């Protein structure tokens, strides 16, 4: 008597075992699930001989699914057979456009089949998608025709139309196409069930890969500013391009550049950039602790996006830091469960012996995860070899064992001349140099903190003040001679969120320079007073340096001035601090340019805002009524005089309110990211050129989103060519 299996899972497992035992070709491990499911669906082991797939097809399909790419089908039967719930968990969806009301009419007009017409009408949906054709040869021919345009090219074509008229020929054309990865069944066999089976095999593989606990890679440095943040962003983009669900992580960051998430949490700007490189929305768990310096030895502590108060360094590095580790552990656990790859950044150096006892950002993280560590040194500044050897010597044996590779960053020159140094490091440390990343200036990644501004404005101590002022004025003169707008940003001692000006720097007809004294100001086209982490201290700096008087005089002479956040507060008549949150003084005079008064409050206001432009004056005339968006981070509340017209109507968290103020050629707003609004930025620059009596010269002006994506991809390409990625993947177990 025969014994029949009744458990569905057991039936499928036995079916796959029997199929595998009858296979005649040597398939790669990642190809086997597709072959098995095709044979299982058809019930015909001989189908194996007809299956053809490009060597890159599986990787391309998995990468697309990992990015949440859609699956486009020619007919509803293919769509019906796809595991839509599993696909949705990967962030994807299935689309069949056959029943679009416009298809039938257009098919008659164009003289095409309905499947061809549906695909042509929705051609833009093909880009980066998985296209599964299971019925119509004409649909496959249409996809191949549309894909001649690189901007419409799918990530993968699963071409399995069935029939005796045109099916075999269409599939041969697909196979002859060398530019698009494909999976097909040659000859007359095929059909919707097979096309759906191939898609499902990829979906199940992608889902299984995502269920594994995330693999980790950690970057630590021989010191601060060696390029940890940028290389972390590079690897976030590389893994994103390869289809892995990737997240960045830095347990603790000290920076004045911060960002507000969609949920209203505050986090370090560097991790925001890394999240964008990974194709993810910023999440405060990626940077659970943010320290924002407010003085020489004090910092405001942000824990999981919310301000906890201002602590002296000694207090924070004592008991508070010990308790913060619990939050770090929780975030690591959650992010590892939700992602496939976690790219982790350390802080400073792991060899800072005075800080190691309470470390929560370097080797303690690496030990907790048993993560491979790549040690980065900046070879451009000199002393890189000594810093690598010295750092490793100061690590404990179990810490040193986690350092699996060395990367020399910011290299200039002929790499052949560096080979003796690479050999020395391998012989001295026993650790391989896995990459030498060249210095780059052709594109830019947002900087983490104001150290970059110090490099731009600092002069050696022995130099006099005059050479620096002369340099600043030369910059302004060069901008005018090069037909560029000269925009001067005030270099406040506690400047924050200076990434607000990246959008201006990206414009070809703009020079942005930082000014710290009135003699360096010159005659710019625009002055911007940026945000501040200590508004009252920076306001005192403006008065003491003479910049306050100079700016007010220049405004009276019609100089455009824009104040953002803290800069907006400084433009008013007075800033009050009754609770002494920032200063011992209760009242500090402002620049008395805008008719407004500000009071520093205990509660921090952190929101993402969007709305529309109300003002029709100055450059706003060209973009009145258009959308505007950004984010707000401030502890002050500003009250304008009665009957003052606002700049914007904004909405955040269900609340609508008005923001911003103008007086003459001066405007102020709490909105960070103001210049990231493309139409507003272009209107501003056009207006500034008109003030010169000129039309704006023709320039290549990309959106900020396009510039960011282009830079991430260029960075990934550079690192791919410079680092042994195969060795890195092996270290991670990928």
Short note summarizing the structure:
The protein has 734 residues and is of the alpha/beta class. The chain is built from 26 helices and 32 strands.
Description:
- The protein is α/β, with parallel strands linked by helices.
- It has three domains: 8-211, Cobalamin biosynthesis CobH/CbiC, precorrin-8X methylmutase (Rossmann fold), CATH 3.40.50; 215-435, P-loop containing nucleotide triphosphate hydrolases (Rossmann fold); 464-695, Rossmann fold (3-Layer(aba) Sandwich).
- Helices cover 38% and strands 22% of the residues.
- It contains 26 helices and 32 strands.
- The strands form seven sheets. The chain has a six-stranded mixed beta sheet, sandwiched between helices. A six-stranded parallel beta sheet has the order 8-15-7-16-17-18, sandwiched between helices. Strands 21-19-22-24-32-31 form a six-stranded mixed beta sheet.
- Strand 17, helix 17 and strand 18 form a beta-alpha-beta unit.
- Helix 2 (32-42) packs antiparallel against helix 10, helix 8 (137-146) runs parallel beside helix 9 (167-176) and helix 11 runs parallel beside helix 12 (269-277).
- The longest helix is centred in the middle third of the chain and has 26 residues, at 313-338.
- The radius of gyration is 30 Å and the shape is globular.
- The two termini are 47 Å apart.
- The model is unreliable at 455-468 (pLDDT under 50).
């Amino acid at each position: 008597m025969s014994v029949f299996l009744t458990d569905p899972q057991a039936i499928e497992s036995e079916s796959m075992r029997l199929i595998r035992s009858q296979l005649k070709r040597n398939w790669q491990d990642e190809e086997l699930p597709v072959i098995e499911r095709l044979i299982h669906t058809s019930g015909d082991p001989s189908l194996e001989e007809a299956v053809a797939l490009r060597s890159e097809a599986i990787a391309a399909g998995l990468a697309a699914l990992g990015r949440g790419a859609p699956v486009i089908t020619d007919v509803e039967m293919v769509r019906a057979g796809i595991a839509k719930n599993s696909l949705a968990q990967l962030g994807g969806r299935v689309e069949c456009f056959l029943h679009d009301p416009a298809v039938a009419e257009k098919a008659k007009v164009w003289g095409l089949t309905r499947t061809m017409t549906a695909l042509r009408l929705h051609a833009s949906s093909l880009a980066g998608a998985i296209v599964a054709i299971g019925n119509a040869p004409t649909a496959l021919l249409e996809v191949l025709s549309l894909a001649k345009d690189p901007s419409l090219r799918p990530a993968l074509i699963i071409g399995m139309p069935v029939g005796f008229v045109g099916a075999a020929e269409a599939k041969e054309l697909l196979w002859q196409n060398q530019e698009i990865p494909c999976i097909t069944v040659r000859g007359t066999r095929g059909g919707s069930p097979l096309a759906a089976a191939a898609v499902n095999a990829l979906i199940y593989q992608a889902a299984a890969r995502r269920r594994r606990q995330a693999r980790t890679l950690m970057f630590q440095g021989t010191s601060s500013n060696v390029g940890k943040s940028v290389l972390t962003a590079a690897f976030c983009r590389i893994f994103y391009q390869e289809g892995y669900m990737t997240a960045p992580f830095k347990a603790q960051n000290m920076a004045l550049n911060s960002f507000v998430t969609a949920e209203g949490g505050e986090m370090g700007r560097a991790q925001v950039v890394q999240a964008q490189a990974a194709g993810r929305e910023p999440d405060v768990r990626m940077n659970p602790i943010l320290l924002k310096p407010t003085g020489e030895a004090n910092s405001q502590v942000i824990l999981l996006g919310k301000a906890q108060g201002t602590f002296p360094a000694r207090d924070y590095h004592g008991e508070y830091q010990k308790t913060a580790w619990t939050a770090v552990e929780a975030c690591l656990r959650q992010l590892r469960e939700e992602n496939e790859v976690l790219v982790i950044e350390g802080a400073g150096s792991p060899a800072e012996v005075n800080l190691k006892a309470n470390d929560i950002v370097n080797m303690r993280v690496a030990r907790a995860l048993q993560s491979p560590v790549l040690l980065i040194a900046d070879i451009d500044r000199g002393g890189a070899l000594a810093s690598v050897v010295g750092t490793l010597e100061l690590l404990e044996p179990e810490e040193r064992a986690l350092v699996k590779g060395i990367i020399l960053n910011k290299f200039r020159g002929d790499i052949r001349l560096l080979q003796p140094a690479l050999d020395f490091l391998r012989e001295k440390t026993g650790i391989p140099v896995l990459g030498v990343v060249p210095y780059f200036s052709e594109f830019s990644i947002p900087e983490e903190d104001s150290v970059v501004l110090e490099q731009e404005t600092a002069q050696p101590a022995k130099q006099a003040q005059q050479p620096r002022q002369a340099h600043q004025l030369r910059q302004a003169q060069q901008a005018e001679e090069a037909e560029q707008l000269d925009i001067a940003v005030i270099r406040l001692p506690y400047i924050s969120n200076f990434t607000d000006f990246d959008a201006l720097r990206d414009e070809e007809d703009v020079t942005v320079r930082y000014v710290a004294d009135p003699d360096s100001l010159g005659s710019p086209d625009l002055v911007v007073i940026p945000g501040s982490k200590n508004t009252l201290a920076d306001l005192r700096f403006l008065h003491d340096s003479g910049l306050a008087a100079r700016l007010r005089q220049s405004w009276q002479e019609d100089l455009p001035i824009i104040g953002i956040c803290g800069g907006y507060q400084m433009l008013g008549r007075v800033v009050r601090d009754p609770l002494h949150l920032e200063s011992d003084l209760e009242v500090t005079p402002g620049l008395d340019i805008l008719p407004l008064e500000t009071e520093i409050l205990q509660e921090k206001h952190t929101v993402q805002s969007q709305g529309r432009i109300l003002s029709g004056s100055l450059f706003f005339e060209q973009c009145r009524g258009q959308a505007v968006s950004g984010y707000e981070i401030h502890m002050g509340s500003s009250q304008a005089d009665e009957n003052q017209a606002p700049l914007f109507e904004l909405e955040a968290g269900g609340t609508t309110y008005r923001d911003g103020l103008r007086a003459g050629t001066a405007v102020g707003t709490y909105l960070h990211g103001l210049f990231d609004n493309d139409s507003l930025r272009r209107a501003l620059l056009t207006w500034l050129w008109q003030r010169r009596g000129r039309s704006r010269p023709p320039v290549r002006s990309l959106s900020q989103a396009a510039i960011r994506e282009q830079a991430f991809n260029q960075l990934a390409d550079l690192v791919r060519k410079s680092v042994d990625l195969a060795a890195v993947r092996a270290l991670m177990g990928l």
